[in-house]
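Reviewers asked in the last cycle whether our approach scales beyond single polypeptides. To address this, we selected a multi-component target totalling 596 residues and predicted its structure end to end. The input consisted of the following lines:
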Amino acid sequence: MSAAYADRLIEKVRSKRTPLCVGLDPFADKVPALFGDLKNDAASVLVKFGTSLIDIAAKHAAVLKPQLGLFEQFGELGYAAARMLVEYGRAAGMIVLLDAKRGDIGTTAEGYARATIGARPGFDADCVTVNPYMGKDTLAPFVDMAKANGKGVAVLVRTSNPGAGDFQDLQVGGAPVWRRVAEMLAPETQTLMGASGWSGLMAVAGATYPEEARALREAMPHALFLVPGYGAQGASAKDALAGFVATAQGLEGGVVSSSRAVTYPPAAQTAKNMSEWRAAIDAAMAVAADELRTASAR
Amino acid sequence: MSAAYADRLIEKVRSKRTPLCVGLDPFADKVPALFGDLKNDAASVLVKFGTSLIDIAAKHAAVLKPQLGLFEQFGELGYAAARMLVEYGRAAGMIVLLDAKRGDIGTTAEGYARATIGARPGFDADCVTVNPYMGKDTLAPFVDMAKANGKGVAVLVRTSNPGAGDFQDLQVGGAPVWRRVAEMLAPETQTLMGASGWSGLMAVAGATYPEEARALREAMPHALFLVPGYGAQGASAKDALAGFVATAQGLEGGVVSSSRAVTYPPAAQTAKNMSEWRAAIDAAMAVAADELRTASAR
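The resulting structure, written as structure tokens, was:
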């Protein structure tokens, strides 16, 4: 039995002294032509772009978050490239959180759990994002798979998109739906609790809503947070850490994801060669890692 | 511009005189050994099992529903097999509704839309299931892709699983969350409206909750329903049609999905050879098609 996912994650975050999570999002119109022709040679370009980013990301950040939908748009070769990059990221020492937002029930949920945080021939990622709309039935197969394999599950609670409130903010007896979701999830955090006191049942808590993040922390005191929306989506480092808690190591309690700002910085998009591209990515990741390091330091 | 998806679907359902939708669910422990060794030769077994089912299903039903999670558990070869079976099903004249339950926003939602109801190298299915938890942001990219390609989108509203009510039934100002979801979706049905008066913005309405299906029909009068839970999950043909409406052609308004009862009937599971297996599947599909035909006849 491997160490609990929560403990592995928090240990790596501490060793990097930054909660930065690098988002790996192969936007079809943004991957630089340096890597080849994405339209006609998707698999090789995706793997080259991804491994090049991971080589640099592993220096700066503890966690990698591939966005599966952006791989799937290239069909099964994109899907296969994503699986290879999950392996590559783990081999580089990163925690790999697969952003797949799966959600189903029973045997199908077991299928998705096996496909994402199981083992070969699936993804063997460290953690997967899950959508709670179908109820606790959805979560159990993922949590069971995570428990058995020392993995984690990150449940969408309050997302960072403009329309997040359409359904998540509907008021149920004086509290929003997302708060009820959090309350129902809270007892389940025990199942994936680590020796660190943090649980591998993570909550997705959008950085664009810092007040909600604080309320969510009250409802789920042990859940590690996955905070999207930092950087390009407009949230500051301080906002992004709103749901973290003060410890002897500084603010702690999850990871903060940045994608565009660290993987498509302007200097990388205009780079003339791989050396310039690498320097631009390295600089952008260093800035993001350091902003979050400073904001979370004691 | 191809004919609206809703019109294509309703036309095929009328020509078969049954709303039966055959679920294609490759459960790892149920695919008969006749098809080979699923553990060691997944891709070939999945394709052989799937094409054999489709050959028979195309005689009895208008619609095929592959459950993507059960393919993904076999990794990228499973994913590729699913894509091939979507093509095979369409070539056999069936409407293929990919049960993928995707849900994301912005560019990632566009990626999933392209991957499922776009075109090669993605799935090119006729319709995809989508989870609304992240709000209307989630739906727009799918609806846009559907509109552009003559495809459909089936949104989870009230699902059929035991825990469906955990979040869907939370009361918001006197009505459950799922009803609010339906009310917010209703105006969007206009975007995918067909000449038939039915919309390709479908609602998933569990057969195990006939009263909810009737209430959902009130909230979304033009949405075609995808009704899961018929057969193995215990709902009767009459229950399954609770959200349908009386027309000159009989009860109309969607499709009713059956998987285990028609793809793993006991006689098929004990078949000694392919001929026996085919006969068992043919008989089970004929029974289900006919039950729904009788229940929906004028």
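The mean pLDDT of chain B is 94. We regard this as preliminary and will revisit it once experimental data from Aim 1 are available.
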